[in-house]
Amino acid sequence: MPGYIASYLHGNGRIGVLVEFAFREPTTSFTDEFRQFAHHIALHVAGMAPLFLDSSDVDEQSWNQELESARGSFANLDSSARWDQVRAIRARFEERACLMKQPFVRDAGMRVEQYVEEANRQLLETIQIVRFTRYEVTSI
């Protein structure tokens, strides 16, 4: 499967992003439309700092920490309401931490996963975001 790695530097090189894409057609990465799409995804990663690609990548330790920090909000609820609260906490956590669930930085009316679907329709392609890495220089 052909692929492409998009890069983006932000803030005079203070934040750097690499995003790996996979798709069917080798010529996809040569189009201006794809390159703009890839740039927008990398820009989003720089600005929104997701921790995971999607829900399936959330590790148990991260979820347990999130749940523990919210435990007080559902401690006094009955069992049914407690599960509803836990599901709501999970949804908010995924929206904040998972790239594909985040509101897209260039159009908050859609999620990143919807932006990818739209790009697939426009480019007649099956683009997948394989992985990403975000680097940030911190003060010493």
Description:
The strands form 2 sheets. The chain has a 3-stranded antiparallel β-sheet with strand order 1-2-5, covered by helices on one side. Strands 3-4 form a two-stranded antiparallel sheet. The protein folds into 2 domains: 1-58 and 99-140, Tetrahydropterin Synthase, Chain A; 60-97. A hairpin with a 4-residue loop joins strand 1 (3-10) and strand 2. It has helices at 32-48, 60-70, 79-97, 112-123; strands at residues 3-10, 15-22, 103-104, 107-111, 128-136. It is an alpha+beta fold and 140 residues long.
Summarize the structure.
The protein has 140 residues and is of the alpha+beta class.
Please identify the top-level CATH class of the largest domain: Alpha Beta
Q: What is the domain total for the residues?
A: 2
Widest beta sheet: strand line-up: 1-2-5
What is the helix fraction of residues, given as a range?
40-55%
Tally of alpha and pi helices: 4
CATH topology name of the largest domain, in short, is Tetrahydropterin Synthase, Chain A
CATH superfamily of the largest domain: Elongation factor Ts, dimerisation domain
Return residue spans where pLDDT drops below 50 for at least 5 consecutive residues.
Answer: none
> How would you name the oligomeric state of the polypeptide chains in this document?
single chain
